[in-house]
Structure formats: C-alpha cells, structure tokens
Amino acid sequence: MHAFAGAIAEIPVGRYEGASGRSKKAKTLKVAALVVAAGRGHRAGGTIGSPKQYALVGGVPVLRRSIDTFDAHPRIDLLAVVIHPDDQELYLGATRDCSMKLRAPIVGGDTRQQSVLAGLETLAGEHPDVVLIHDAARPFADAKIIDRVISALEAGARGAIAASALADTLKRVDDRGRIGATIPREELWCAQTPQGFTFAEILDVHRKAAASGENRFTDDASIAEWAGLDVVVVEGSSANRKLTTAEDLILADRLLSSRDRDLVPHVGTGFDVHRFGDGDHVWLCGVRIEHSHSLVGHSDADVGLHALTDALLGALGDGDIGAHFPPSDIQWKGARSNIFLEDAARRARERGGRISNVDVTLLAETPKIGPHRDAMRAAIAAILEIDIRNVGVKATTMEGLGFVGRGEGLAAMASATVLLPY
Fold first, then answer.
1. CB of 137 within 8 A of CB of 43?
2. Which residues define the annotated binding site for a divalent metal cation?
3. Domain total for the chain?
4. pLDDT tens profile 62-83
5. Which H or E element spans position 342?
6. Which one, out of 36, 58, 285, 304, has a CA that is 20 to 30 A from the CA of 229?
7. Residues within the annotated binding site?
8. Last residue of some domain: 217, 232, 258?
9. Looking at the structure, do residues 201 and 276 belong to the same domain, yes or no?
10. How distant is the alpha carbon of residue 301 from its chain centre?
11. Which residues contact 195 (CB under 8 A, 6 or more apart)?
12. pTM exceeding 0.70
C-alpha cells in the first residue's frame, strides 16, 4: 500500500487550525494562490478518460479539491488556476459555485515553468505581496501546511516550501542493477507544494529564466535557488502526495468513497438571539462587519456561530453552548465565538464523526449580509475543517415585525448534519 493511503482518508478539504486567534489586523500580507493545472498527466494513462486533474476522487475532481483548500483558507485573498487551452469546459464544470476569490482561468504554456510564468504575469495586475504556487495534482494539502508557508514568509523568508523528510534508505545503483553505495538521508527532503515566495521576486526570476532560455526547472524553488534566493523548508505532510499514476487515482478514490460507509447521519438545530448595544461593529459567522451598533453578549455575541454551535451539539446529543461555556465563567468574557464552534467540531471528531453539512439563516434588517456571505462561508468552513460547498449562509429580514424588525437586535437559526458511527 502507498505510504499516503492511511493519511489521506483523514484529511478534510479546507482544513484549518489557528484562525480563531488571528485578528483582522494581523493579516498584513496580501496573499495570492496560483494552482497549476495545465499538464496532460500522461503517466496516469488513458484509463481515466481525461487529464488527471479532472479525474474524480471521492466524487470530486482532483482540481476542485486543490482549489477548495485554498478557497476556504482565510489567509488567501485571491486564487487563480492555470489550465490547458483544451480544458475550458472541464475547468468550468469543476469550478462551479467557487467563491469570489477565484479569478478567470489562465491559459498555460507547453511546460510547467511557462505555465507558472503566465499565471504570475496575470496576477501581477492585482499586486499581491506573496504568492503560493501549488500543483493541482496534490489535492490533499491542508490548511496547516498553508499556514506554515505563509508564516515563514511573514517571518522574512524570501521563499518557503512544504517538504517532508526522506524516510526511505537511498541506494545508488549501476546500469546492471547492482548497489554501489548507500546515500546518507539526514539532509534529504522531498519537495512538495505549495511553494511560497515574495511575489515581485519570484516573478522577476521567472522572467530572467525565460529570457536566458533556462527551461530545465521542475519546481519554483529550483528557479529561486538558481537566482540565488534563499528558500526555507517547512513541514509538509505524508498525505500531501502528488497523484501521478492511474493507481494513485484509484487508491485515493477508494479511500475517500469508502470512509462514510459505516456512518449514520444525525441532525441538530440551533437558535440564538442578541440585542444591539453601543459599538461600531458586529461579528457574524466569524466575520467582523462595520455597523452603527454592536451586539451585546458575554462573548463576541456572534449569533450565527452560537446557533451553529448549538446545532452541532444537538446532533451529538451533547447539551448546549451554555453548558460547555457558561456565561458566568469570566474566561469567556469577550471571547471569539470561533472557540465554541471549534470545540463542538472537536467533540464530533472524538466521537469518530464527520460534519457533513451546515446551514445558517441570519434574521436581520441591517447590516446587509449579501456582501459578506462568501467570507462567512469560508470562515465557517475553515473553523469546521469542511468543504466550503457544504456550508450554507442565508439571510432574511422580518419585514419590520418584532424586535428584529424594529432594529433592536439580531437572531440566527442553524442546522447541522453529523455522520456518526453506528
């Protein structure tokens, strides 16, 4: 069995840990993600009927899984994909309902190096500070890896790549199949993606490589090394393996398709209300929104996340938010509600469960929810470590009726489906 077989079954799309402690002010870099999907995938053979990045694994195209990981991550500001000119229809089919982060597809070149340069040239118009370049055929990268790459760049690295320490013993073999030497592995790492760089520098070195006719590079770190840029390594994951062969695709599909076989759906609902008070913003579904008033509560009074937390706890039959985080406890005064939702998600995982989908309806006259809907979905997906496509956020007014209609406060109701073992 492949080394990644046991790991990928446990990696949810869009996984992210640590967002709850990150304030809006801490987000200092404009971060772009560039997914490279212009290859033909010849080593996957002709059995899948399309380029491997569009093959289904667990019912979802490989490319879509790669896109969703970056789309759901709150540190990624914009996202673009480089595709083969013949794949326009396949791409459109794989990317329906993505968020507004995703830009129009970019046509790539004959080599990966040319495709990356085409993508960088297009993104230059949006002036990102850093860019994370990722191979579409690595659909099991997770948000922790993205965090580590971005953190290295924030700390001053000019380049940072995900990688894993080599575990196998290496042998040098001659043309007759005889072992000639054992190669020390202590300083050897297997390069992965995403690979992150300061945007202006990686664009400049790609341009220089193209102008000089250098076209031998198999990843972006090697181009950076050629240009004399220091590149650091951050911890990747054994699951973050590139799907190269037809066997890889088949194995990944089997693992993902079978993981829910012995799980039963449990549904829970939640409801929450908070009144308005003095202030200049509200927190709704994990997103800070400027407003003429704030919501009053012991924590940040995020009605959307409170209702959703109760929905998850209801599906688990595990009390309610007040039982686990009593308002009388001073440690929760002013706390971000992400903490409560993360705890409910942890309880589901500890039961061997998986959150299938969640849905929140906000009852509000103001502020307007529509402009923030995608950010809310992304925030919830990141907290719960689920695919953003399985997160619904809606809003309705009360037509001037009741306390919501009079502008005295906000309410939210939510539902959640959790798949739990028999």
1. no
2. 272, 274, 306
3. 2
4. 999 999 999 989 899 999 999 9
5. helix 338-350
6. 36
7. 272-274, 298-299, 306, 320-322, 396-399, 403, 406
8. 258
9. no
10. 26
11. 132, 133, 134, 149, 159, 160, 161, 162, 219, 220, 221
12. no
